[in-house]
Amino acid sequence: MKKGILLVNLGSPDSPTPKDVKKYLGEFLMDERVIDIPLVARTALVKGIILKTRPKQSAAAYKKIWWEEGSPLIVLSERLQKKIQEQVEMPVALAMRYGSMTIKKGLQELVDKGVDEVLLFPLYPQFAMATTETITVLAEELRQQFFPNLKIESVPAFYNKPDYIEVLSNAIKNHLEGKNFEHLLFSYHGVPERHIRKSDVTKSHCKIDGSCCTTPSKAHEFCYRHQCLEVTRLVAEKLELKEGTYSTSFQSRLGFDPWLLPYTDRTIERLGKKGIKNMAIVTPAFVSDCLETLEEIAMEGQEIFHEMGGKDFTTVPCLNDDDEWVALLSKWINNWAIDETIVV
Ligand SMILES: C=CC1=C(C)c2cc3[nH]c(cc4nc(cc5[nH]c(cc1n2)c(C)c5CCC(=O)O)C(CCC(=O)O)=C4C)c(C)c3C=C
Ligand SMILES: [Fe+2]
Ligand SMILES: [Fe+2]
């Protein structure tokens, strides 16, 4: 059998124009694992309300962060793919869950190279219904419909793998070397609380009450909140951060449902009001810098902090195409090629 890799990230619009942003958001938000309400209600909400105003607003935000080569998320994912390809023997393709670089095209590219066994690699350290699950479900649907002879195995969330924590901690340490920060905020993309309850395989563990996520449970294999809190805990342990000098928050909420707390914008506000003058922020739910890190955090977050009296606001870049990160992903891929072990 010939093996190949399909790295999958979220995706971006083709350009930062309201028209392309609308097309992209339409596909993204109509995903039943992103806005998880019945089809009729989802259509009314997305097409009848969100897509009437949001594309213009989002396009303006995208314009602020767009690069000459294109969307930062896509460009950085492509750089990652190229660097991994230099370190592994088998073909490495890249796809996006939404937008033009489809998973179908990615699978076809591998099949055209003679691949019949694919390692599907969602580029998300933590599991979420709206990220990892939607990728694996779609890939399986495409396999059944178009590639019935293809074998696909998926890489699960790797949030607590010691070598991932080490690479992430080193990246944070290197970036913050010599910088004097009083507080390090770990900001993760949020999800509606409802998503956490839906993914609870035990159906009774998740209470979103702050304690369930630190009580051992089978539910944590698919609990986004637990997995985010664990990344913070493990990195803080590795970097020997003192209690009270770091915290976790959740960003990018959409709509009026309760999302995971505390919210990042409010947390930054609170830190500024409390008299913190120098803060740093890291965003471990994203492996590539994107709209949510470059605009929402590095621009809007910084502005909030300054308005509250804060001075230095340092954003730690995502792992992007960091050499240690590339080496780790290549090691995991090469291990799979040798003995089918998936990420240990
Ligand atoms: C951990 C990763 C992500 C989760 C979980 C996630 C959930 C989620 N997102 C929305 C709504 C939007 N997200 C948007 C942008 C965006 N989201 C992620 C990652 C996760 N989303 C990334 C990497 C990006 C940036 C993409 C880029 O091109 O750079 C947007 C678009 C921007 C905007 O208008 O704010 C929306 C909308 C929901 C509803 C959701 C639910 C669980
Ligand atoms: Fe929990
Ligand atoms: Fe999002």
Automatic annotation (TrEMBL):
It is found in: Cytoplasm. CDD domains: Ferrochelatase_C, Ferrochelatase_N. InterPro entries: Ferrochelatase, Ferrochelatase_C, Ferrochelatase_N. Its EC number is 4.98.1.1. The keyword Iron applies. The keyword Magnesium does not apply. It is an enzyme of class 4 (lyase). Keywords: Cytoplasm, Heme biosynthesis, Iron, Lyase, Metal-binding, Porphyrin biosynthesis. It catalyses: Fe-coproporphyrin III + 2 H(+) = coproporphyrin III + Fe(2+); heme b + 2 H(+) = protoporphyrin IX + Fe(2+). It comes from the Bacteria. Its main location: cytoplasm. Pathway: Porphyrin-containing compound metabolism; protoheme biosynthesis; protoheme from protoporphyrin-IX: step 1/1. It holds the Pfam family Ferrochelatase. Fe(2+) binds at H189, E292. Catalyzes the ferrous insertion into protoporphyrin IX. Belongs to the ferrochelatase family. This is Ferrochelatase. It comes from Mariniflexile soesokkakense. The lineage of its organism: Bacteria, Pseudomonadati, Bacteroidota, Flavobacteriia, Flavobacteriales. The gene is hemH.
